[in-house]
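U., I forgot to send this yesterday:
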Amino acid sequence: MTSNSHLFTAVNLDTAEVLINLLAEYNLTQALLQGIIMLEVSNTKNHTRPDNVFCSVGLEIEHTFTQCAVEYQLHPIITDHFPIISTIDLQPECINPSLQSNFRDVDWKEFREALSTHLDTSLPPADIQTIDQFQQTFTHLTQAIAKTVEEHIPKSKQSPYQKQVHKLGWKARDRLARRQDPIHEEFCIACNRFSENIKKAKTEHWEEWLKALTPTNIWDFHRYAASDPTNQVHMRIKTLQDPQDLGGNNIM
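Result:
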């Protein structure tokens, strides 16, 4: 603009070249329209345009960046900058959570009987000698197992505790501006309780597994204990102690 021609000095042009090169390197374009007033100087009431908003060219072409405008009516008191409102239409894809097979609540006697019935519908050859016989037998076995699983394995439901924590999280986020709202303390307590329950479940599972060790799977424990920890901050395997040793001497 002619009113700003005095700003086109050699120093300013060299400084602006850095910004121009960055815009070209990252393929950015200016989202705000030209000539929009962005600031009103408090003492002189002069209007200037010091602010800029940039976005990727792809966002503008795909109409994802739907709005970038100055909302003068939202101008706060005792401030000089006018608020710039940007709207991005993301529209995330909704994914329906799939139910998982719950193998813990299975009547295995009933499952084995049903599997045996499906397998008896087509008896495999007594001696598999060709590739075709192997493929047919393998396909029949796979289909029998899949059909039995579909018929007799219940589906697991989403944990109600996890759902409650998410609900509290959304409520706490919506009331973030109201720091004294009791929902924040409720959400914090629920998160801590959920975390403690996870730690307790892991500890109980680990102790039950140790009690059930046999000479057959003792090497599984050795492999866990001898491997490097996945998290260097926390030990992967707790130090074992002899419950009969009142002095608390460590086994490992």
